[in-house]
């Protein structure tokens, strides 16, 4: 496997993607089964070509082929094997190729697992995915070719950014990209529906599993990235409202709204136009995040490239994909029939309110993220929008969102009355009141206090929904167990996902009470923080595979009893002339004891060391909640009634309407 084979496979994939974008669309328009039948084969062919291309790039990295410019710039002989592999996507060119490969896998999945779709709909969906893939593959070939050669080839490479040499960030990009790109499938279904002029319950049933799967991956990717920033960057925080962090949060918010809106389409054939717009918007925000990272507009620890030429190419691609889809929406959406009516007090009504609040939060985050670069571009002013703005604007919207989350699963469809629902949620309300009282006693600010109460409310109401469905405590336990076996797994999945939100919010509220100190100490000196005694007992030097390290030993005691021994470190990478911190964390799942080693001062005979000490209550709950959310989504997907698409529409003649 050599770079020329990888480059050829990439070019071939681009040609196949162009054919995939054109031929099935013509076939669907002409109702030609032969052309429509080409769609799955072309999608699988493109997928195989890109997998081959990506494998060639990995092979070049593993074999230290420094004649490939990408390998020479991002790898080195002494680099550990794991990071030689994962470093393939830890740079601009490799990450774009990874994006294209994941997109091709999505197209292949629709081809292989969408056989129960109407042939015209499947052809159109695969064609849309092919068109988007062709754009990214052209981007790869013309501006970001990962197989570009360098001559003469150096004996060794420049190595990788040391911050990226970490297992958390090694696997964060593929998971995050799968979430980003996964929303291309609902987008393709939305464009196909607009072309076809039809959205119905079957369409909602086909879209929902793809949206849930993408949402699960995006949730895991965001949680993993947040965890990485917490334990690698050494700042003691978990989310810094970095512009590129926001670029992943924005499609997550609209994607969450899409998942809920698709349920209304499936169950009640309502919110059709809104669901189509959400599908377009979510993928558009995913593409916009790519533009922000690679255009040079935003400066971020996450940014891969600062190249205006690449940014212009992506901007053109964005204009074509987003502008074209919105133009098609404006032309065709009025032709989509409206769904069934429902009362404001109903499950549909609360889902609409859920959508409004989620999209309002999205609008606030988008405004805060884009306002500084627009001010710089238009008026030449440099301003910063940071944590105080985002906290003050998003939390007041998130609290009512969580309040309504507790009612949603308990509400009947079409029309409901509040009193029966409130009567079933009395004990959840009681627990929330207790949490509110405890929070008032232990917390300082009003927003964390309210967030704690709402988090307990969401968790308790999710449990109430399951208890009510199982009729626990109202019939023998054996009967409840039999009922549990017959309930759809999607019921348990939804309850878990909602509870995961509550767990994450509890973690965020706990972190608002975190305490920290920055101290300069001699070896043997003790400092106090959060009632614990922190003693620096030793500092030693060590050598790693491609770095030199200075490792500290810190003993943490409470009332004289040893709680833990921390070993924070500083690593110096000679080839990159860069130093990184290695955080030491001890957790008991209730709080984190967190230590960071800073600079060495003084003389070798009498040295002092800077330490950053943190006590972070409930910190693990933030990522535990993300895991619970993703498990809830996966549990829903494991339900055959959600995962398997709806049966074919009865009348084949109605599957396609003339454009």
UniProtKB/TrEMBL annotation:
Stretches assigned to coiled coil: none
GO molecular-function terms, A-Z: heme binding; heme transmembrane transporter activity
Gene Ontology annotations for the cellular component aspect, listed alphabetically: plasma membrane
Highest taxon of source: Bacteria
Listed Pfam families: CcmF_C, Cytochrom_C_asm
Membrane-traversing stretches: 6-26, 38-62, 96-113, 125-144, 175-195, 207-229, 249-266, 273-292, 312-331, 352-374, 394-413, 425-443, 449-467, 487-509, 618-638
Example of a GO biological process term: cytochrome complex assembly
Membrane topology: Multi-pass membrane protein
Domain (Cytochrome c-type biogenesis protein CcmF C-terminal): residue spans on this chain: 315-640
Keywords annotated in UniProt: Cell inner membrane, Cell membrane, Cytochrome c-type biogenesis, Membrane, Transmembrane, Transmembrane helix
Annotated ranges, domain Cytochrome c assembly protein: 89-295
InterPro entries attached to this UniProt entry: CcmF_C, Cyt_c_assembly, Cyt_c_biogenesis, Cyt_c_biogenesis_CcmF
Compartment list: Cell inner membrane
Family note: Belongs to the CcmF/CycK/Ccl1/NrfE/CcsA family.
Role of this protein: Required for the biogenesis of c-type cytochromes. Possible subunit of a heme lyase.
Protein's UniProt name: C-type cytochrome biogenesis protein CcmF
Source species of the chain: Novacetimonas pomaceti
Lineage of the organism: Bacteria, Pseudomonadati, Pseudomonadota, Alphaproteobacteria, Acetobacterales
């Amino acid at each position: 496997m050599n770079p020329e084979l990888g480059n050829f496979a990439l070019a071939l994939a681009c040609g196949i993607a162009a054919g995939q974008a054109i031929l099935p669309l013509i076939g669907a328009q002409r109702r030609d089964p032969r052309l429509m039948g080409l769609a799955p084969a072309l999608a699988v062919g493109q997928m195989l070509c890109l997998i081959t291309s990506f494998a060639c790039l990995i092979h070049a990295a593993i074999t230290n082929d420094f004649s490939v410019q990408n390998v020479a710039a991002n790898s080195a002989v002494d680099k550990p094997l794991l990071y030689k592999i994962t470093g393939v996507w830890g740079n601009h060119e490799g990450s774009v190729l990874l994006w294209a490969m994941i997109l091709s896998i999505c197209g292949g999945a629709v081809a292989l697992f969408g056989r129960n779709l109407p042939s015209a709909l499947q052809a159109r969906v695969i064609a849309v995915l092919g068109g988007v893939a062709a754009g990214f593959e052209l981007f790869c070939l013309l501006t970001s070719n990962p197989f570009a050669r360098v001559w003469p080839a150096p004996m060794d490479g420049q190595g990788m950014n040391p911050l990226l040499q970490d297992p958390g960030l090694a696997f964060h990009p593929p998971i995050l990209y799968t979430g980003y790109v996964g929303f291309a499938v609902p987008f393709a279904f939305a464009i196909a529906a607009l072309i076809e002029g039809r959205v119905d319950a079957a369409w909602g049933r086909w879209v929902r599993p793809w949206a849930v799967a993408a949402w699960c991956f995006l949730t895991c990717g965001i949680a993993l990235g947040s965890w990485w920033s917490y334990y690698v960057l050494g700042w003691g925080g978990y989310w810094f409202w970095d512009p590129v962090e926001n670029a992943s949060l924005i499609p997550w918010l609209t994607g969450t709204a899409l998942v809920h809106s698709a349920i209304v389409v499936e169950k009640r054939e309502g919110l059709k136009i809104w669901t189509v717009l959400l599908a377009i918007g979510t993928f558009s925000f995913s593409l916009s995040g790519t533009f922000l990272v690679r255009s040079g507009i935003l400066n971020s620890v996450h940014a891969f490239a600062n190249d205006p030429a690449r940014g212009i190419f992506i901007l053109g691609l964005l204009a074509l994909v987003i502008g074209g889809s919105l133009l098609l929406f404006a032309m065709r959406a009025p032709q989509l029939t409206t769904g069934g009516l429902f009362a404001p007090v109903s499950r549909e009504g609360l889902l609409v309110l859920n959508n409004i609040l989620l999209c309002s939060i999205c609008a606030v985050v988008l405004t805060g993220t884009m306002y500084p670069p627009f001010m710089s571009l238009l008026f030449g002013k440099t301003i910063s929008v940071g944590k105080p703005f985002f906290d003050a604007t998003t939390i007041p919207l998130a609290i009512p969102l969580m309040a309504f989350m507790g009612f949603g699963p308990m509400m009947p469809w079409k029309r409901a009355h509040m009193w029966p629902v409130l009567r079933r949620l009395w004990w959840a309300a009681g627990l929330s009141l207790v949490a509110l009282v405890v929070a008032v006693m232990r917390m300082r600010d009003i927003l964390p206090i309210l967030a704690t109460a709402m988090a307990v409310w969401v968790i308790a109401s999710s449990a109430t929904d399951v208890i009510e469905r199982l009729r626990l405590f109202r019939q023998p336990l054996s009967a409840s167990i039999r009922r549990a076996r017959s309930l759809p797994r999607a019921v348990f999945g939804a309850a878990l996902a909602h509870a995961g939100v509550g767990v994450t919010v509890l973690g965020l509220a706990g972190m608002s009470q975190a305490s920290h100190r920055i101290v300069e100490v001699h070896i043997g000196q003790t400092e106090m923080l959060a009632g614990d005694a922190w003693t620096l007992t030793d500092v030693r030097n060590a050598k790693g595979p491609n770095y030199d390290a200075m490792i500290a030993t810190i003993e943490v005691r409470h009332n004289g009893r040893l709680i833990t021994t921390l070993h924070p470190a500083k690593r110096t990478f000679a080839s990159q002339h860069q130093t990184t911190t290695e955080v030491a964390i001890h957790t008991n799942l209730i709080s984190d004891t967190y230590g960071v080693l800073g600079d060495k001062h003084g003389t070798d005979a009498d040295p002092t060391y800077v330490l950053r000490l943190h006590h972070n209550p409930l910190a693990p709950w933030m990522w535990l909640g993300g895991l619970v959310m993703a498990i809830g989504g996966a549990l829903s997907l494991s339900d055959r009634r959600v995962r398997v698409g709806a049966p074919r529409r009865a009348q084949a003649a109605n599957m396609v309407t003339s454009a």
